[in-house]
Structures are given as C-alpha cells and as structure tokens.
Amino acid sequence: MLQQTINLYTTQTLKIQLTFLTGRCKALFKKPTQIIAIDFGSNNIRVLLGEQTKDGNFSIIGHGTAPSSSAISKGLIQDMDSARHALRKALTMAQQKTNSLSPKLISIGINTPRAETYTKEATLELKNEEITDEHLYKVFNIAQQQISKSDKDLLTSLNSYEWYIDNFAVQQPLGMRAEQLKIRVHFTIIPKVITENLKSCVESELHPSFSVIDHFVYNPIATALGALTPEEMELGTLLIDIGKSTINLIMFSEHKLIYTATFDFGTIFMSRDVSAVFKINFEEAHKLICDYGISEELINKYIKSNLPIGNTPLSPSLISNELRTKPISLQTVLDGFNKNIPKIELEGVIFARAQEMITTLKKEIEKKDLTQSLLRGIVLAGGGANLQNMNILIEKIFNAPVRIAKPQYAIPNIPQSVNNPEFATVAGILRHGFSHYNAIQKGQIFQNKKIFNQLLVSLISPFKKQKGAKPTSTKLI
User: Fold this and answer.
1) Residue 328 in contact with residue 346, Cβ under 8 Å?
2) If DSSP codes are grouped into helix, strand and coil, which group holds residue 209?
C-alpha cells in the first residue's frame, strides 16, 4: 500500500514537472506577435512590420515605400493593378531583413475627405451590478445604432471611447459595480467602396488558404498616435497632417479626441499652380516646390508690414531686389514661354497657395471654437511638413508654437530611416494595430465579435508564394 502511494505520488510529481517543462518550452519557442501596418497614401504606399518585444512594447523590423501616384487619390484606389503592384513592392522591401513573417493582424489606414465623424452617447441602467462584457456590448450597440448606415462602414478605435460609471469618468469599467454605465464614442463613417477595395487590394497579396485578419483605422487618429507625446495629448494640441491630396486636422485634449476633419486639398494644389503659371510638367513643379519651399522673406514682409495674412497682396515695394530679380531656369517649359523666370514669381505662386490653405485651416479651428485648446501648440506631420518654412508660415498664421513631428516621441527605438513626419501616420497605424490586438486578447474589444474567431487562426505566412515554395516561405509573389 505504501509502495502504491509512493508510486502514485511519483507519477503525479512527474506529470506536474512535465506540464511545467512543456509550458516553459512553449514559451521559449513561441513566436513574438507580428503586425503589418499599411498606409495607402496618394504619393506613396508605406509599410511597417512590427514585432512585439518581451517587455510588452514593439520594435520595427522592416519598412518599405513604393510610389502610388497613379494608383491612389484621396484614399480611393484609382487603378487596382497599379495599387497591387505598389503594395507588393513596398511589402517586398519591408521584409528584406526578416527571416520569417507570421503576422497576427494587418492594420490598414484609411483617409478620405468623404469621411463623416460623429460623437454619440448611450446609457445603460444597471442595479449595482458588476459590469461584464455583455453590458459593454449593449451600451456600445445603443450608441452605434444611432448612426448605422448600410452603405457605409463604421470605424472606432481604442482612443474613441470614453467610459462613465454613475457619471464618473473611468478608463475601463469592466468588473466595476455601478447603477449606470455610459459610453461616449467617436465614430468615423467611411464609404464601403473605399474599405472594400483597400481590403481587396491587401487580400490579393495574401495566400488564399489563410483568413485575412484586417483592421482599419482612420488616419487622423493614427497620425496622432505616431506623432504626439502623452503631454501633448493631455494639455491640448492641434495636429496638422499635410499630404499630397488631403490635409487632416486632429485635436487632442485631456487624452481625448475632440475633433477630426479631412480637407480636400494638399500640396498637389501648389504643384498644379506652379505648373499652370509657368507651363511646366507636374514633376518639375513638385521639384521646384521642394527645392525652394515657402519664402521666409515673404512671410516676414507680411508680418513687419502688419498686413493681414490671407487678405492683402504684397506690394512690389515690400520685396527686396535680390528676391525679385534672381533668375530660375525651367527645364520642361512649353515652346513659346519663358524658360527663365524671376525667383519672386515662383515664390509668389507657392506662397499664395500655401497661405490660402493654412488660412482655411485656421478659420475652421476658429469656427469650431478650438483656438483656446492649443496649450501645447501645433504639431506638423505628413510630407508637407518637410517643405521649407511651412512650419514658420503656420506659426505666424496661427500665432502658436509649431514643431515638426518625429515618430520617436511616440514610438521608442524607431529606426532613424523612418523617424520623419512622412512616416508618422504609418507608425501610428502600427501602434494602433498592436494596441487593438492586445485589447482583443484581453477581451476589451467588443464591437466585432467575428474577429475573435479570426484571431484563433495561426498564420504561418499570409503572403502569396512562388510555386514549390515551402510553407514558411515569405516570398510575396
């Protein structure tokens, strides 16, 4: 009897040890979570590959960029074949230094002037009950039903929710007791023609045997996550994201998203003006804008003369002879037109359009009565942030301090090659993707139950493979 007891004890001990060792081995060989972020810009498609680190943060393990000017405009795919080709090129570049790729989530940014934004509230009465997932589902659905549209997709994000229990703001109400649960949600409504075609473009590069685990995020929210510091989100900051065909405005205060808007103009308007006035092609016009930027002398002349920016044209007497007479040689001008122009003529055209665009943004902020919320000033992101003196023009028009975005302030250890304002949006898309995935794992995301089943699928390599390739191959085509 004693021997049987000893044998039983030994067997149970061995089982416990084996279970422990098995768990340790699984943890040891478990692949870190990987996420792909894609930004479909009008000028470039940008891709970041991220991998979760042991401390719970994430690192960027690959990045790629491919021109998309013929494929995408204002968030809408114009040519599917061109879009697929550009995406494939960016993905191939991004994975060059990655031995194996097994993403859990593909996070896709969406940007369009056709976006509609709403903030809705909903309340659920309780009886001092402990708040569960079902309560969260119910109160969210009450808010969602207020604006559901069959031809539109509804987007939210972790930064879009505000929770209240008995009128007290809380970060996460799950597990708490209250008489009343309230939610305040910022919704973005996107035409399905945009989301469905972006999804189709991404899925075309996935292996057909795998389910697509896609996640959409509204670009203004993503840009904030890739550009703003916690202090800027807390104290009040306006983020201006200047792209080729759109400009986004995003306002954060007290860590709450209080305003977003997408405007139907961008740096391409400046290129078109230069092309139209001087009869040159778009490529040269764009290069001239990048080379010369916005004249600081013109900005300063306006300020010193006390002329209202946006209303009064410059008098020739206010312009220096050097600025007025320095010639610029044009390379693609049409026959019969001047091949050499004074520098002031070029800078005057650039300044006029830039001034008009930024003044329009300021009027919108004044209209929404948000000027007093700029305690930390303005952060400038997007390709337009790199234009010479754009930050100075915005600073003068808004009368507020301006800094140019660097993703390093929002994402530690970011590679220097992508630490610039053009990558702020895709960096935020990646950051949002990891937050979204981790929240799903913790049961904090509830608006789409289908995604729970999708996340149970273990993706080995979702990208298309060449014939004869092994299952772990990461070849895109």
Assistant:
1) yes
2) coil
Per-residue buried b or exposed e for 420-433, using 16+ beta carbons within 10 Å of the residue's own CB = bbbbbbbbbbbbbb
What does the DSSP assignment read for 222-242? HHHHHH--HHHHHH-EEEEEE
State the Cα–Cα distance between residues 316 and 325, nearest whole angstrom. 12
The CA distance from 196 to 369, in Å, is 36
Q: Which domains does the chain have, with CATH numbers?
A: 34-114+193-241+409-454 (3.30.420.40), 117-190 (3.30.1490.110), 252-402 (3.30.420.40)
CB 116 within 8 A of CB 189: yes
Half-sphere exposure of 476 (CA within 13 A, CB side): 18
Segment holding 301, helix H or strand E: helix 296-304
94, 48 in Cβ contact below 8 A? yes
Burial of 197 (0-12, 13-18, 19+ CB in 10 A): middle
Q: Which two tokens stand for residue 224?
A: 């904030």
What are 216's two structure tokens?
């959409």
Q: Report which of 209, 82, 216 is spatially closest to residue 463, judged by C-alpha positions.
A: 209
State the Cα–Cα distance between residues 193 and 149, nearest whole angstrom: 13
Q: Is 279 strand, coil or helix?
A: coil
The per-residue pLDDT for 24 is 42
* Pair 60, 430: CB distance under 8 Å: yes
State the Cα–Cα distance between residues 275 and 246, nearest whole angstrom: 19
Q: Could you give phi then psi for residue 221, rounded to 5 degrees?
A: -65, -45
In contact, 110 and 223? CB cutoff 8 Å: no
Only one residue has tokens 């304002």, namely 421
Reference 181, options 121, 119, 123, 127; nearest CA is 123
DSSP character at residue 218 = E
Mean pLDDT, 10 residues at a time, over the chain (477 residues)? 50 47 45 90 95 85 93 94 96 86 89 91 95 91 86 83 93 93 93 95 73 80 95 96 96 90 94 97 96 93 67 54 75 93 93 95 96 94 97 96 92 88 96 88 57 31 38 30
The CA distances from residue 134 to 6, 146, 174, 178, 276, in Å, are: 49, 19, 10, 15, 59
**If you search the block for the tokens 């390599």, which residue do you land on?**
461
Q: Are 351 and 294 in contact (CB under 8 A)?
A: yes
Question: What's the distance, Cα to Cα, between the start and end of the chain in Å?
Answer: 67
Burial code (b: 16+ CB inside 10 Å, e: under 16) for 164-181 equals: bbeeeeeeebbeeebeeb
SS3 191: strand
> Are 227 and 424 contacting, i.e. CB atoms less than 8 angstroms apart?
yes
Distance CA 423, CA 141 (A): 34
